[in-house]
Design goal:
single chain, mainly beta, Immunoglobulin-like, Jelly Rolls, 2 domains, 6-stranded antiparallel beta sheet, 5-stranded antiparallel beta sheet, about 5% helix
Length: about 325
């Protein structure tokens, strides 16, 4: 393919109808945009299991007391993550952990399997803290890497909400039960219900029902993303007339708009959870902005340029 010299191509503008990452979370900063151990769907952080985030993978062996009698147990090490996962093979990840394992200094993904006697059945839930808007996007998909050994009646589930978490819908495709996989794998869920939503969020549930067998790890999650296809955009022949530079940037950057787009144009900067951080109606062709003045931390942001009923979205990387 012939190399184009125009800056707009080399800086990775999202072309018309290209897939756009609307939201992402890799848990390298802790729980980040997720709330752990919520009460959604009647769940709670029980006396046996809970959600946490860390980068521990090593298992171990210890004992647990049941009706005054010690029983030995082993938590298997969590398998390393594959290359595509951010910061693999041992990056931070969201996962379940047993209270007993934590007490005994075993911090990898685990769960205390319900047997109906020493360990009772429980359900624990974690979800995105804020809503994400997919208005203006179609073919929206929710993807994540996961691993879960689980058991006969022990498994993970994925839910979505379109009313700020007021109610939750089970994602039953490609599966309604995430289990029987001790190795990490990528799951992608695409539903029409995800398109054009102003208040979309996702959650993970771990159901620990009484089972006759169980295998570590517990429900483990990483590299969560929401991706969609923009339904509108500035005509491709006019792409070169809109520019953002330098990109990546560590402070000052410019948004340059051709004269013909000056009227009825709005510039917005949106973070990866869908929150609008900055909005401006430009009065000159070049608008210099400061990431420090705007309070933009290191990461990826979307610069949205709207002109009448058209829009262009640019990925801005802040170092």
């Amino acid at each position: 393919m012939k190399k184009l010299s125009t800056l707009i191509i080399s800086l990775g503008f999202i072309s018309l109808h290209a897939q756009t990452t609307i939201y992402s979370e890799n848990f390298e900063g802790g729980a980040g945009t997720f709330s752990l151990n919520t009460t959604d769907l009647g769940s709670m952080s029980s006396a046996f299991n809970f959600w946490t985030v860390n980068n521990n993978y090593a298992g171990g062996t210890d004992t647990i007391m049941c009706f005054g009698t010690p029983f030995g147990y082993t938590i298997n090490s969590t398998n390393a993550q594959p290359g595509p996962v951010f910061n693999s093979p041992n990056g931070s990840y969201l996962h379940t952990m047993s209270q007993e394992g934590q007490s005994d200094g075993i911090f990898c993904s685990s769960f205390a399997a319900a047997d109906g006697f020493c360990v009772l059945a429980d359900s624990i839930f974690t979800r995105m803290t804020n809503d994400v808007s997919t208005v203006g996007f179609t073919n929206v998909s929710f993807s994540f890497y996961w691993a879960c050994g689980g058991g006969t009646n022990i498994y993970g589930q994925v839910y979505y909400s379109t009313n700020a978490g007021g109610s939750w819908n089970l994602c039953s495709s490609p599966t309604a039960q995430y289990k029987d996989s001790i190795n990490w794998s990528l799951s992608t869920i695409t539903l029409p219900a995800f398109d054009g939503q102003s208040t979309l969020r996702f959650g993970f549930r771990f159901l620990n029902n009484v089972s006759i067998s169980a295998v570590d790890p517990g429900f483990s999650i990483d590299d969560v993303k929401i991706i969609g296809t923009s339904t509108s955009g500035i005509n491709e022949e006019n792409v070169k007339l809109v520019n953002v530079y330098p990109n990546p940037t560590d402070d000052i950057f410019n948004i340059k708009i051709d004269d013909q787009f000056m009227d009825h144009t709005q510039i917005s900067i949106i973070n990866m959870v869908g929150e609008t951080i900055f909005t401006k109606t430009p009065h000159q062709t070049s608008t210099p902005l400061s990431t420090k003045a705007l309070g933009l931390k290191s990461g990826v942001y979307l610069v949205q340029i709207k002109h009448d009923d058209q829009q262009k979205v640019v990925r801005l990387v802040v170092k």
